[in-house]
Write a structure and sequence with these properties.
Keywords: Acyltransferase, Cytoplasm, Transferase. The protein has 151 residues and is of the alpha+beta class. It has four helices and seven strands; from the N terminus they run E-H-H-E-E-E-H-E-H-E-E. Bound molecules: coenzyme A.
């Protein structure tokens, strides 16, 4: 059974393995470690014996939750884990008083775009070259209070 839990220092090597298997240009272990310390309890993992997915966010200002990264081990995809991890992050953002959540996603990352749309995110902007030359990102926002617009 997969459990969603707080990440701890001892999870980081396994988080990094998920990261490495999920992204062309993975975050280095040292950066993941830095996020573990600056994100408070906004770093969550999915465990099935080992870490099979993770999500990390940070608060920006008093109202904004920023989703920094989300990834699920390839063999565990398509089973709802991405949704569960992000859902847990949204609940934690909400408890901290965030009114909305935002993130960046590659414009051609159809699977992630589908996931975010299904959770109520919508595109509000474009960051040109965000992931490197010619690799643009949409900025997506989700209202955590169930209202139509965001403040
Ligand atoms: C994006 C990612 C985290 C999704 O994780 P996941 O556990 O497979 O996602 P879920 O099973 O919770 O699926 C949630 C939604 O994603 C979309 N989705 C998932 N797999 C999909 C597929 N193969 N094709 C199209 N859409 C898909 C669907 O909208 C799905 O909702 P539905 O089940 O109601 O149709 C995972 O694919 C991943 O780690 N990708 C590589 C890293 C990455 O791109 N991270 C996002 C960076 S912005």
């Amino acid at each position: 059974m997969v459990i969603i839990d707080n990440a701890s220092l001892s999870d980081l090597e396994e988080v990094y393995e998920v990261e490495r298997r999920s992204f062309e240009d993975p975050y280095p272990l040292a950066l993941l470690k830095a996020y573990l310390f600056i994100s408070g309890n906004l770093f969550v993992v999915a465990r099935d014996g080992k870490v099979v997915g993770y999500a990390v966010g940070v608060m920006q200002g008093r109202w904004r939750g920023h989703v920094i990264s989300l990834a699920v081990e390839p063999e565990f995809r398509g089973a709802g884990l991405g949704k569960s991890l992000l859902g847990e992050l949204h609940r934690r953002f909400g408890r901290l008083g965030c009114t909305y959540s935002f993130l960046e996603v590659g414009v051609s990352n159809e699977i992630a775009l589908g996931l975010y749309r299904s959770l109520g995110y919508y595109v509000v902007g474009l960051k040109v070259g965000y992931y490197g030359r010619g690799k643009h990102a949409f900025i997506m926002v989700k209202d955590l209070k169930g209202r139509k617009g965001v403040e």
